[in-house]
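Customer escalation, tier 2.

The customer says the design service returned an amino acid string that "doesn't look like it belongs to this structure." They asked us to rerun it and document both sides in this ticket. The original structure tokens are below, unchanged.
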């Protein structure tokens, strides 16, 4: 995320789901905060979802990166650094929906799915479902296409 913050067209960032230092260390967290990025831990998100969603910055456009490391390892074990206590599918879906309601979604990517650890393709399934959710929420905002909340449900 640090490299993205250096781009001249990136004005702000919010990161949901942090719950450990991983390989980053305290210095990386300090740099993120100094740049002005908003960090919302998974426990903080769980305590008050609405307050966490209200922290999404206003922007003319939104780009979402879904790092499956941030999802709870009980639903998404197929990543290089699974940790318990992460974001659940329903929480990730609401974050994506609220972001799409705030402004146009110009991009969405998924990172950190690791197929050798992806039991029964579970991480891939969650990543694909959340991508579909993002597409549907973006279409709903732009063209009024309603999302019914299940695979293949844009109509």
């Amino acid at each position: 995320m640090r490299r993205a913050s250096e781009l001249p067209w990136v004005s702000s960032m919010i990161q949901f789901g942090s719950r450990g230092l991983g390989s980053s260390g305290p210095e990386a967290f300090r740099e993120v905060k100094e740049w002005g990025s908003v960090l919302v831990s998974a426990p903080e998100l769980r305590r008050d979802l609405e307050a966490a969603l209200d922290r999404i910055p206003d922007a003319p456009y939104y780009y979402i990166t879904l790092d499956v490391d941030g999802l709870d390892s009980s639903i998404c074990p197929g990543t290089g650094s699974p940790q318990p206590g992460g974001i659940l599918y329903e929480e990730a879906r609401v974050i994506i929906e609220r972001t799409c309601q705030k402004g146009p979604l110009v991009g969405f990517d998924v990172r950190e799915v690791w197929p050798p650890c992806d039991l029964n393709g579970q991480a891939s399934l969650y990543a694909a479902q959340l991508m579909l959710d993002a597409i549907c929420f973006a279409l709903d905002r732009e063209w009024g296409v309603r999302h019914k909340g299940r695979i293949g449900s844009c109509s």
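Tier 2 assessment: The sequence is consistent with the input. The domain at 2-143 is CATH 3.40.800.10 (Arginase; Chain A). The helical segments are 2-5, 25-35, 42-47, 49-53, 89-102, 122-143. Sent an explanation to the customer and offered a walkthrough call.
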